[in-house]
Amino acid sequence: MASLTWGRRFLLCRPLHFTVAYEINPYMHVQVHPDPEQALAEHDGLVATLTTAGAEVEFMDPVAGLPDLVFTANAGVVDGDAFVPSRFRHPERQGETVHDVAWFSHRGFAVTPLPGDDPFEGAGDVLPFGGEPGGAHGPVLVAGYRARSAVGAQMHLGTLLGVPVRTVELADERFYHVDLVFCPVDERRALIAPLGLDRYGCRVLEELVPEPVWLTDEEATAFCANSVVVGETIVMPSCTPRLGRILEDAGFAVAVSPVGEFLKAGGGCRCLTLALDVDLSAAGRPGGRPGAGGQPVG
Predict the structure, then answer these.
(1) Is the pTM of the predicted complex or chain greater than 0.70?
(2) Which residues are known catalytic residues?
C-alpha cells in the first residue's frame, strides 16, 4: 500500500462563531442551530484524533459574522508554497477570502488568484489522486462542478498548476462539493459515492482509480466520503460495519470522529480541514513544478 504523499499537516479554525445563520445548501436550516458547546467539543475531538494519528494541526483565527470560516477546506488549494484562494459563489461566504489570503500571505505562501470570475470553492471541489514520489507519472486533480464551482475555474486551475484535471458533475444537490463524493485513501484506492454523480462521472472515476471503494447510498448520505486520511488512519464522521471491514482488510485503521453539529451546516471531517502539505510537483514529477504549461482535460 503506497500511502498518500500528503495529509500530515492541516489547517483548522475553531468554531467560536459557528452557527447556521443562512441557508445555502440542503442541510442548513436557520431554525436548527448547532449547540455551541457540543460543536466545540466535536472540533476538539477531531483535532485530538488527527494529532493521535500523527498529523500536525495549525489554526486560523475565527471571525465574528463568518460562521462558515470553520470549513477551511473551502479556503482554496495548496500546492507546495503556492495558495490559490477560492472565489465563493454565495455572497454569505465571500467575506472569508480576505482572511484566508491574509493567513497564507503571512506564512510566506505565494497567493495566486485564478483568472476570470467563475466560482471556485477550493479543496472542497478539488482533490489530487495518484502520483508516486519520484515516479514518471504525476497526480491528477479530481474536480467537481455544478453547485459551487464552474468548469472554467477548474480548467484555469489545471493550467496554473500544470496538472491534468478530471472534471465530474455533481448531479445531486445534497452532494454540492466533490469532497462529499470522493476521498483518496492511498495511491490506488478512493472512496466514491455514486449517488452524487452522474453516469459519466462514475465512469471517469472508475477509469482513474485502480481499486475504487464504492459507497452505498446509506454511507454516502452519512458523509462517509467526507473523511480525512493521515497515513494509514482514516478519520471519518461515521462508518458502517461493511465499510469498516473493507478498509481494515486493505490495511487501514478507522477512527470515527463524530461531527454531528457541523453536519447541520452540511460539513464533515474533510470540510473542517485543509491539507497544507499538498505538493503536486513533488508527487511524481522529478525536477519540480512544471509551471503554467500543463494540459487540463475534462
Answers:
(1) yes
(2) 177, 271
